[in-house]
């Protein structure tokens, strides 16, 4: 028994060391593979995380992921280990409506909260100091919940920070409230509104007001960029002037 425990400890330490090294050289895919992978490897999302978030990985951030494991299990998904190693100087917080036993070191926290509840999410933000740098929505994938989480959390994203929405395919699936074509209530509908919000910042409206009116903000005025890929989108908060 003692020998098997020592072996488990050695393996955990070895995986952690390799994971930190791979994170340092901007390899989230191989970092995840150290721990058996996550559904992010299956979907092909991790090279995109390296593209958009790689420059932030050695900074001190507050990283929040909504949805951190199967509802039938109290064990968190491998993504919390991935983010712990990929962001080695950051606080990493998992949020899930179901309880999880998270013991991944002092930088990793867990909050049992409903992503569709503004009150629950406000409590998470307050507990983390009031400002977030990265939010990843890998939660229920229900459009109504994705809208609620974005509206509750995006105002707390720091200037230049990122909000990520995963698994956009559910915008087309009826069991998740989706339809073909995806309407305004889905995550794809949210992204359409955010694309419009990003256009509000176009300086051409101020330079040539005679050409036409600046559009109204639909969701949030701080949207600087919206990058959409199959299954996933990255939204960047506008930097301070």
**Overall spatial form:** globular
CATH topology: Rossmann fold
Strand order across the largest sheet = 3-2-1-4-5-7-6
Mean pLDDT: 90
Strand content: 15-25%
The count of helical stretches stands at: 9
| Euclidean distance between termini CA atoms | 60 Å
Q: What is the correct CATH architecture?
A: 3-Layer(aba) Sandwich
The major sheet is characterized as: 7 strands, mixed
SSE class = alpha/beta
Task: Specify the helix fraction band.
Answer: 25-40%
Unreliable runs, pLDDT <50, ≥5 residues? 4-14
Oligomeric state, counting identical vs distinct chains: single chain
Tally of structural domains: 1
Describe this structure in words.
The chain has helices spanning 2-24, 28-33, 39-43, 46-53, 79-86, 118-127, 143-153, 187-199, 204-207; strands spanning 62-66, 91-96, 108-112, 132-137, 157-166, 223-229, 232-237. Helix 1 (2-24) packs across helix 5 (79-86) and helix 6 crosses helix 7 (143-153). The protein is of the alpha/beta class. Residues 4-14 have low confidence and may be disordered. It has a 7-stranded mixed beta sheet, with helices on both faces. Helix content is 37%, strand content 19%. The chain has one domain: Vaccinia Virus protein VP39 (Rossmann fold). The protein is globular.
